[in-house]
Specification:
alpha+beta, 28% strand, 6-stranded mixed beta sheet, elongated
């Protein structure tokens, strides 16, 4: 039976319809947010899957019919998810995942189909709301609800779910999600906001989230199904005690080894000792053997996690011996790669990234086909994480969700210091290659790419540095159980910790935030402490970066395209391009293959590595578009002579007629007796008629020179006396 629920939410109507569409899913809602419409469904397997993780899948499917577009490409249908769809799916996954109980192993799939889009009514947050509500009204054991909002700031005023126009003027692009009690996901870009300003914006967003959560709770109370009973995974206590009694003390020592590889080898040796023992035992069924090995591995992982957490919270000892606010050893360098436009390497402990910067023309912009207002972008940041970075063998090739997400985080962090197209008319691409990793490679990529930009001569506004903060709790965040905030988390602390809080920015403020947590939420106090601790760490990192390169280089690499930019009359664009591109192609051929971009407003940009080729192309275009001005004096070349006058080439395709009466003060019977073809001849423009024909005078030029008491050059090589 169809049910409809409505909520007025910050000036927009939120309507939820259930019971009519997708009735065979475990939970389904048809959500309308003004003219945005998203179908969100949730399904759960009946039996748990074998494995040591919760198999949750979230998709965000962008249908281009939602904005009245037909997909490009040969097939004319939607292909694999684009970058925006992938990032949005991650955005929804992150706050939902912690809301399932430990040990939940049933497979859950959430599909969001975006069917209509009002760009002023966020489809991304509509999908997040629908995902949570579909789970809440289903029989799937979900500890939600959760919800999310975008927060913008225009002229100092915070705005919930800003419109497209408001976003254009906003100095903040914040996505925040959480429950009615706490925040559990943050994703932000900001134009150098302070820690207090960012924290106020996050808490402002949480107030709106509470309203959405209450709305979901009301709906679930009315139509929600009773939650099914699911068997949660728990290891066998006897096997756990056996393993702990045999290797616990040795595992504690192994965890405290400083070097990552040495530590991992010691831990792996102990794990293999136990795994080999249980692997060689006899089992009645093959599946019993498989399940036992999964359980033993899980017990070992839990042992390591518990010890790492105990050492940090109780003894304030980190696996590598650092203080809780201490950064690993830092180093930075530029110009590793001689032929790229800009390159840099940033190392933090055993995390190392090599970044490059490449400059291209406007034709190199990335074309976008998604459900956003953007159709292209000129600034790109890509992140690659090959398996050798952690000493493993694995898949290479197409970037996965994690690589796309980390690349986008770096792109956001650096976007606020990238010069405008008017200042620097280049397409800019940075690629961060992670060559070694022990945690926080995404923030190392921001540091390396920032230096690569400066090495390439991109006039960025400020140095951007990034740091990853962690959190280890000892119990509920109720004020009674202590917690520890860690600066510069490494792999173990990230894997076994409760929070990964990435902060990037300049000396003036924050440019990007990303928070992922494994617990159900964090408090304002924790966020405040983490932001302040990160501020000091970012400053130390900037000092090291500045020692390698302190400001953008004044000159571009000799291998980078140089540019010249100027405007021509819009009506002259057709003259420069020519019929079928004949004129512009001729210019390109004559000028060593320069690239020429001409916009509809007459803005011309010429690119080439050779400045002389650029100058030559500029002169040619200027001569084509130049117009003769009345009163101007030109030294032209005589191209044709008749009795009634001579034709003089002034510039480009422009020539004019100097009538015989305008050749001299005295009478001239025939121009043929005064000038000859090929002779340089100074003339003054005395008129341009409606058809563009130019009238010239040598007589007026002579007169002007007499007034200036300058003797003109005598003409008339066989003038009759």
């Amino acid at each position: 039976m169809k049910k409809v629920f409505e909520l007025e939410f910050y000036g927009k109507k939120l309507v939820v319809e259930t019971g009519e569409i997708a009735k065979q899913a475990d939970g389904a809602v048809f959500t309308r947010f003004d003219d945005t419409v998203v179908l969100s469904t949730a399904c759960c397997s009946d039996e748990p899957k074998e494995g040591d993780f919760f198999p949750l899948t979230v998709t965000y499917e962008e249908k281009l019919y939602a904005i009245g577009k037909i997909p490009g490409g040969f097939l004319r249908r939607e292909g694999r998810p684009g970058e925006h769809a992938t990032l949005t799916a991650r955005l929804i996954d992150r706050p939902i995942r912690p809301m399932f109980s430990d040990g939940f192993r049933n497979e859950v799939q959430i599909i969001n189909t975006v069917m209509s889009v009002d760009l002023d009514a966020t489809p991304e947050m509509t999908a997040m709301f629908g995902s949570s509500l579909a789970l809440s009204i289903s029989d799937i054991p979900f500890d939600g609800p959760i919800a999310g909002v975008y927060v913008g700031r225009v002229d100092g005023k915070l705005i919930i779910n800003p419109t497209v126009e408001q976003k254009e003027h906003s100095d903040l692009n914040l996505a925040v999600a959480g429950t009615k009690d706490a925040i559990n996901m943050v994703e932000a870009g900001a134009n150098e906001l302070s820690e207090d300003e960012m924290l106020d914006a996050i808490m402002f967003g949480h107030e709106a989230i509470k309203k959405l959560c209450e709305f979901q709770i009301e709906i679930a109370k009315e139509i929600g199904k009773a939650k099914r009973t699911v068997k949660l995974y728990e290891p066998d206590e006897a096997i756990k005690n056996d393993i702990y009694s045999r290797i616990y003390d040795r595992m504690v020592k192994a965890i405290s080894i400083f070097d990552k590889l040495e530590r991992q080898n010691a831990i792996d040796a102990l794990k293999n000792e136990i795994l080999d023992d249980y692997d060689n035992r006899e089992y009645k069924k093959e599946n019993d053997h498989k399940l036992m090995m999964l359980m033993v591995n899980d017990i070992l992982e839990k042992m390591i996690a518990d010890e790492v957490r105990r050492l940090i919270t109780e003894e304030k000892i980190r696996p590598d011996g650092r203080k809780v606010d201490e950064i690993r050893p830092l180093s930075a360098a530029v110009d590793l790669l001689p032929r790229v436009h800009g390159s840099a390497m940033f190392t933090r402990g055993q995390t190392q990234v090599i970044a490059t910067c490449t400059l291209g023309t406007k034709n190199d912009v990335q074309i976008l086909e998604n459900l956003t207002p953007e159709d292209n972008k000129r600034w790109m940041h890509h992140y690659n994480f090959p398996p050798f970075a952690v000493g493993e063998i694995g898949r290479t090739g197409t970037p996965g969700r994690r690589e796309i997400g980390h690349g986008a985080l770096g792109e956001r962090a650096l976007s606020y210091v990238i010069p405008s197209e008017e200042e620097f008319p280049y397409t800019i691409r940075c690629v961060a290659e992670v060559v070694e990793s022990n945690g926080s490679s995404s923030q190392a990529s921001i540091c390396a790419s920032c230096m690569a930009l400066m090495a390439a001569g991109v006039p960025i506004k400020n140095i951007v540095s990034g740091i990853a903060m962690g959190l280890i709790t000892s119990g509920p965040l109720d004020g009674k159980h202590p917690y520890t905030i860690l600066t510069d988390i490494q792999g173990l602390e990230d894997h076994f910790g409760d929070m990964d809080f990435k902060v990037a920015g300049t000396k003036n403020g924050i440019t990007a935030l990303q928070m992922d947590i494994k617990i159900k939420g964090v408090t304002r106090e924790i966020l405040h402490d983490a932001l302040l601790q990160a501020n000091g760490a970012r400053a130390k990192i900037r000092e090291v970066m500045a020692q390698a390169i302190s400001e953008p280089r004044a000159e571009l690499s000799e291998y980078a395209p140089k540019f010249d930019s100027f405007y021509i009359d819009k009506d002259k664009i057709k003259d420069v391009i020519g019929s079928g591109g004949k004129v512009i192609n001729d210019i390109i051929e004559r000028c060593e293959g320069v690239k020429i971009d001409i916009e509809d407003d007459g803005h011309v940009t010429i690119y080439h590595t050779n400045k002389e080729a650029i100058n030559k192309a500029h002169e040619i275009i200027e001569s084509i578009t130049r117009e003769a001005e009345v009163g101007e004096v030109y030294e032209g070349v005589v191209t044709r002579v008749e009795d009634y006058g001579c034709f003089v080439h002034l510039f480009g395709d422009t020539e004019g007629l100097c009538h015989v009466s305008q050749l001299a003060n005295e009478r001239v019977d025939s121009a043929k007796n005064f000038v000859r073809v090929g002779e340089k001849f100074k003339v003054k423009v005395i008129g341009v008629d409606d058809h563009g024909k130019v009238k010239l005078s040598h007589k007026d030029f002579i007169g002007d020179n007499k007034e200036n008491k300058e003797e003109p050059k005598k003409k008339g090589f066989f003038r009759k006396k």
